[in-house]
UniProtKB/TrEMBL annotation:
One of its GO terms (biological process) is cell division. Residues 1166-1185 have a biased composition (Basic and acidic residues). It comes from Ostreococcus lucimarinus (strain CCE9901). This is Sister chromatid cohesion protein PDS5. Keywords: Cell cycle, Cell division, Mitosis, Nucleus.
Length: 1264
């Protein structure tokens, strides 16, 4: 029966035998080990039938299992000693563990667990461990493939580990410890599992972490090992244990987690990288957005990841960003992911490594898109705080050199889910822009401007493509090359873009270009634009002509209007209207922040994409009726920018009438914007309005009619003072934008402003100190209106030029400080009103000087405006004046700019008493110097390409150098209130009267020479020396002051050159001066004699006070330069008396750095006999006389005048050395020989002298 062929018979036989053994227990009914072995083999064969619950033998096998489990029938198996009995126990575990499965687990698992746990308990004691083969059968079920294929067996093995902890833990711990160090015997039954010890530790850590108590110390020791591979192995082991789903090891053994997370700071990059890989998986199982508190392990890991954002290795920083953003992409609480941590990730956009920056951009974009998707319906305030700043940060990234638009554009395109509606997108954008600062707004403008430019270029290309068939090949190829060159600049790789664009042009499928045309159409919706983009990409890919797919995708991305298309504009306008209506209903007097942000954003869009506003007349018309003035002002600005698109709206007539009212009443800013909008909305000469349009209200008039109506109101004096700012603002705006219309009523406007408004008597009532009166404010508006209308270039002897001249004279009278003195025409004005009117007149003069013809602003007017920076008491006004000068001096290429004389005006503020004004002026002056230097180099390069020997323009290249401003400064500073009134006064007290003027000049020279190599020093010295061959054209009696100041400036330049070790040799080129300021003479001016009876001084420093000392505002620094050493050696050859003041100065006293100029005899005459042992003072032997030698030039060339540039030529060598620039130096023999450097003032008492060669002395005598 036991060997019957029938499986069923054998199972039933085994059941019968088990029943007999159950009945006879505890006595054994079967004797002999061999017989018992056969019985147990029969049992094992029968228990194998448990696998299939549907088999006929299952019930009998189950009954057999129950008998075996209840009375422990298999326990005697452990005592058998016959052949073949040694494998019975292992076979029992194998059969039963394999028998359990998902189908029968609920039926047999309990009995099998009882049988196996009993066998484990009986097979071991204190001296005998569980057999290795039994341990093998249990552990092999904890890992794959059993773990995956038979989860029930896996669960049963885990239960055995927990239930038999006293018997199994020790052999498991021993095996794992040996396996980690490769010490498992090859003959051991567990040898095949030694290579998978990490998998086993991972599973045991889940089912029973206590089984690893003695294993952890060995692993933690490996974490601190010196060997990198050992640490990596330990890290990978812990990584799997802690990150395993369902494992609570991190919570149960916090000391292990703490030891493990220290590897985040490991010195090896590989270890830190493994830790970050683990953290991402670990946090996914530990972060619960609904939990009230964050788990301690998760918080610990997040803290370490945050620190790794600042790791010195860029790959670790990148991995940290990815790990943190993996968490951020999912719903998280502010406990685990606070706002400041998100900001810290955003700071990585400015990382020094390009890969980190781009990763931060893309991951923040993904996180924001996930936020927008999950919060589309309801956005919690704490979520808004964490995420709404991200779009602004992405926009600011366009200023990063290797990011720019090429990286930001694709990121912004993916910022929202593809299926999100345009209204929702607009809502999210407005919330983001609500947090934007001024810099972010500028970045947004730049982004939109770049997009508008490439759209314009592509429209021009499509237009050209449609005309190419009608053009000859040569013209067509030239035009095509030109437009392709314009398009390629929008891409990072310009050459590659040009090649790809030509390949796209070769496409014969016209549908590709129709798709591009569709995307360029501002009327196209977002959905249709997406379809056109997909269609164009698909067609270009399937075309037979090879087209760069990356290029076509980038091109389509750049030209699409998203994310700021027409639907966005409509959605933003609707949101603004809705918020405005809500505010009016609630009677809220303040402007809602949402309306402010929306309208500011719309203003930016109107500046760059005005066509997007077509069809938006209803919303614009509603916003113009708002009670809030800020809303109306912003709406007027939108209309003024997008008026061309609003001309086709049915609401055009209604908008026209409302804007017309704004021109004659209300706010001044609204009136100016309304005037600009009316000029664009007015009817064209050939425009026709049909009856349907009239009914719809799409009618408009002419701006000239509006202007005529305003002038009539002014002429009849029907405008109230409250409305006068708006009216004058409208008049000034018309004069700026439509001068021809303004000139139609010039006499009436000029009559009202000059003879009515400006002649009103000042108020006699008491006004608070520092408050400008209403009359002065209105009069300032009148001056501005006239100045704006006069700021146009016009031909000479025309009505326009005469009007401009009259306005300049009027402004001069108001800018002159003498007009407000006791005997002046405006003496009755208060100090505040006088300052306000002067300030207005000065700014208006700057505007006219920038836009009108050169030369209209006379020197007296220029001096008057310049002195305002010194005479004005208000630091705010001086700061605004500097800002006004900046807007005219530092401009973009192609824009009109102020002439160089206004840079001299700016220089007056370099030593302003207010630090903010002084800092601002220094920044503006430095920026102007840099920009002017670039312009000068460009002009010189252009002149070099067309240079001829007799080209008269070559002699005027010098006027474009920034150093030429010193010529204007010399003229201007002689009129400075702190300058001496006469040359004799300047000579007194060793030139004390020149101190303040010298500080201004020193500041300007320092800024001019900063960052250069001194190449412009020779030409600068010649400019200053040659001033002694000129006269003050405005006031000839002032010429001696010009000579003194030119000597002072020359002294400062030479001193600066000596300090830097620069060359000060002669410059052989031409020198010219402004004809308005200077008149040339045929002789060099001579200075006063050194003493009575001596000959007049001639040459360098002849007009400078004897013993003049340069005083600087910085403490003396101890130096040991070559120049100082050279001077010290030279002075050892002769004894000099020390100054008494220096002798009494303490060493610890804080002194000023000085350079002293001492004259033994400031003259060309031979010195007295007692002085012949010392050198004649003539610094560096750079004689002015040498430049009059007949081998250089003749004095007959000094009267040459260039009428085109209004400059006087005062020196003209026979041949020009080449194109002149600020970096060009004279190539003379003086440059090849060693030139004595100007001495430094390391010793305050040492006079500045220079030894003269004896041969040179004899040469001088012969020349005399």
């Amino acid at each position: 029966m036991m060997t019957n062929e029938s499986k069923k018979v054998r199972v039933l036989t085994a059941l019968c035998v088990s029943d007999i053994m159950r009945v006879c227990a505890p006595e054994a009914p079967i004797a002999g080990d061999e017989a018992m072995r056969d019985v147990y083999e029969l049992f094992l064969d029968a228990l194998g039938s448990l696998k299939s619950i549907e088999s006929e033998e299952f019930e009998a096998a189950k009954s057999l299992l129950v008998n075996v489990a209840n009375i422990g029938l298999c326990v005697p198996m452990l005592d058998l000693e016959c052949a073949g009995a040694e494998t019975l126990v292992r076979d029992l575990f194998k059969v039963l563990l394999d028998a359990v499965n998902a189908a029968n687990s609920t039926t047999v698992t309990e009995e099998i667990s009882k049988v196996l746990s009993t066998m484990i308990e009986e097979s071991s004691d204190e001296d005998t461990p569980v057999p290795s083969d039994v341990t093998f059968e249990v552990l092999s079920r904890l890992i794959d493939p059993v773990r995956t294929e038979n989860p029930a067996s896996y669960m049963l093995a885990g239960e055995l580990v927990r239930k038999c902890e006293h018997q199994l833990h020790t052999p498991i711990q021993t095996f794992l410890t040996q396996a980690m160090h490769g010490l498992v015997d090859e003959d051991d039954a567990l040898a095949s599992l030694s290579k998978r010890h990490v998998d086993i530790i991972e599973e045991i850590a889940v089912c029973d972490p206590t089984a690893l108590v003695t294993v952890w110390p060995s692993v933690t020791d490996d974490l601190q090992a010196d060997d990198l591979s050992t640490r990596l192995r330990a890290v990978k082991l812990f990584r799997r244990v802690f990150a395993y789903e369902g494992s609570t090891t991190a919570e149960d053994y916090p000391h292990l987690l703490l030891e493990f997370v220290r590897r985040f700071n490991d010195k090896a990059v590989e270890v830190r990288a493994e830790m970050i890989k683990w953290s991402s998986k670990f946090l996914k199982t530990r972060v619960d957005p609904n939990a009230a508190l964050t788990s301690v392990p998760a918080a610990t890991v997040m803290k370490q990841l945050r620190e790794r954002l600042h790791d010195f290795d860029d790959t670790i920083r990148t991995a940290s960003i990815n790990a943190l953003c993996d968490v951020l992409d999912k719903p998280t609480s502010t406990e685990i992911f606070p706002h400041d941590l998100v900001l810290e990730i955003g700071e990585r956009i400015k990382d020094k490594k390009s890969g980190v920056r781009k990763t931060a951009l893309k991951r923040l974009c993904i996180a924001y898109r996930a936020y927008a998707q999950r919060c589309a319906d309801d956005v919690p305030a704490w979520e808004m705080k964490r995420f709404d700043w991200i779009p602004g940060a992405l926009l600011r990234a366009i200023t990063i050199p290797d990011v720019r638009l090429h990286v930001v554009e694709p990121v912004l395109a993916m910022l929202f889910p593809a299926k999100m509606s345009a209204d929702l997108r607009s809502t999210f954008w407005l919330r983001a822009l609500n947090l934007a600062d001024a810099f972010t707004v500028r970045c947004l403008k730049h982004f939109l401007l770049a997009k508008s430019r490439i759209q314009a270029d592509m429209r021009e290309y499509l237009l050209l493509r449609s005309k190419l068939s009608k053009m000859n090949k040569k013209e067509g190829d030239a035009a095509l090359t030109k437009i392709v060159d314009a398009i390629k600049v929008h891409f990072p790789d310009k050459q590659k873009a040009k090649t790809a664009m030509m390949a796209l042009h070769a496409q014969k499928d016209g549908n590709v270009f129709r798709c591009i045309q569709t995307m360029l159409n501002p009327e196209t919706s977002f959905a249709n634009a997406v379809k056109a983009e997909e269609d164009a990409t698909k067609r270009a890919k399937s075309s037979s002509q090879a087209v760069d797919q990356e290029f076509i995708k980038t091109l389509l991305l750049k030209i699409q209007s998203a994310p700021f298309g027409r639907e966005h504009v409509r959605g933003t306008l609707k949101a603004a209207c809705k918020a405005t209506r809500a505010a009016q209903t609630s009677k809220n007097t303040s402007t809602p922040q949402g309306v402010v942000v929306a309208l500011e954003h719309l203003c930016i869009l109107a500046e760059t994409f005005p066509k997007l506003f077509s069809g938006c007349g209803d919303e614009i018309d509603e916003l113009l009726d708002a009670n809030d003035q800020l809303t109306v002002t912003s709406t007027c600005k939108v209309v003024s920018e997008a008026a061309a698109a609003l001309k086709v709206t049915p609401r055009r007539g209604s908008i026209w009438e409302k804007l017309k009212v704004k021109c004659s009443s209300g706010d001044r800013k609204q009136a100016k914007l309304a005037t600009k909008a009316l000029g664009l909305l007015q009817m064209d000469l050939d425009e026709r309005i049909d009856a349907t349009d009239i009914i719809a209200g799409a009618t408009a008039g002419q701006l000239s009619d509006v202007y005529l109506h305003i002038v009539e109101l002014l002429a009849e004096d029907l405008v109230a003072d409250s409305d006068l700012p708006a009216v004058l603002g409208a008049v000034g705006s018309i004069g700026t934008l439509h001068q021809q219309i303004f000139m139609l009523q010039l006499a009436e406007v000029e009559q009202y402003v000059v003879h009515t408004l400006l002649t009103r008597p000042p108020p006699t009532g008491r006004i608070a100190v520092g408050v400008v009166s209403d009359l002065a404010t209105l009069q300032a508006y009148g001056l501005k209106a006239l100045a704006k209308a006069a700021a146009h270039r016009s031909a000479a002897d025309t009505v326009e030029s005469s009007f401009t001249t009259r306005v300049i004279e009027l402004l001069h009278s108001y800018a002159d400080i003498d007009s407000y003195k006791n005997d002046g025409m405006f003496a009755e004005y208060s100090g505040t009103d006088a300052a306000h009117l002067r300030f207005t007149a000065c700014k208006a003069m700057l505007g006219i000087s920038r836009n009108a013809a050169i030369g209209l602003v006379k020197p007296d007017a220029w001096i008057c405006v310049s002195m305002f920076l010194h005479q004005c008491e208000s630091a705010t006004m001086r700061r605004e004046m500097v800002a006004k000068l900046k807007s005219g001096l530092v401009v973009r290429p192609g824009e009109r700019m102020l002439s160089m004389m206004w840079a001299a005006t700016l220089a007056l503020a370099l030593v302003d008493k207010d630090k903010s004004v002084r800092d601002s002026a220094n920044d503006v002056f430095a920026n102007w110097v840099a920009a002017q230097r670039q312009r000068s180099a460009a002009i010189a390069a252009q002149a070099a390409t067309k240079k001829t020997n007799d080209d008269p323009s070559q002699k005027f290249l010098i006027v474009h150098m920034p150093e030429y401003v010193l010529v204007y400064m010399v003229f201007l500073l002689t009129r400075h209130p702190l300058a001496p009134k006469t040359a004799e006064e300047g000579m007194e007290e060793r030139g004390q009267k020149w101190r303040q003027v010298q500080l201004i000049m020193s500041a300007a020279i320092s800024s001019l020479t900063h960052g250069t190599n001194g190449d412009a020093i020779p030409v600068t010295c010649k400019m200053l020396r040659r001033l002694k061959t000129t006269l003050d054209k405005v006031n000839p009696g002032n010429s001696d002051l010009i000579y003194s100041l030119s000597d002072l400036a020359l002294f400062l330049v030479v001193d600066q050159a000596g300090t830097k070790g620069w060359d000060t040799s002669k410059f052989p080129g031409h020198v010219v001066y402004p004809a308005q300021l200077y008149k040339t003479t045929q002789f060099m001016a001579s200075g006063p004699p050194a003493k009575e009876g001596a000959q007049p001084g001639l040459g360098d420093y002849s007009h400078l006070p004897r013993g003049y000392v340069i005083v600087r505002s910085v403490p003396i620094a101890s130096t040991s330069t070559t120049t100082a050493k050279t001077n010290a050696k030279a002075t050892q050859k002769r004894s000099r008396s020390k100054s008494s003041s220096a002798a009494t100065t303490s060493k610890s006293a804080k002194t000023l750095k000085q350079t002293k100029l001492s004259f033994a005899a400031g003259t060309r005459a031979m010195p007295e006999r007692t002085a012949r042992r010392d050198a004649v003072v003539d610094v560096g032997d750079r004689d002015i006389d040498n430049e009059f030698d007949d081998e250089y030039e003749s004095e007959d060339d000094y009267d040459e005048i260039d009428a085109n540039t209004a400059l006087v030529v005062v020196s003209s060598p026979p041949t020009s050395p080449g194109p002149l620039s600020e970096n060009t130096t004279a190539h003379t023999q003086a440059r090849k020989r060693k030139v004595d450097k100007a001495p430094r003032a390391s010793d305050l008492d040492e006079p500045m002298v220079s030894a003269v060669d004896p041969e040179e002395k004899r040469s001088r005598r012969r020349r005399r």
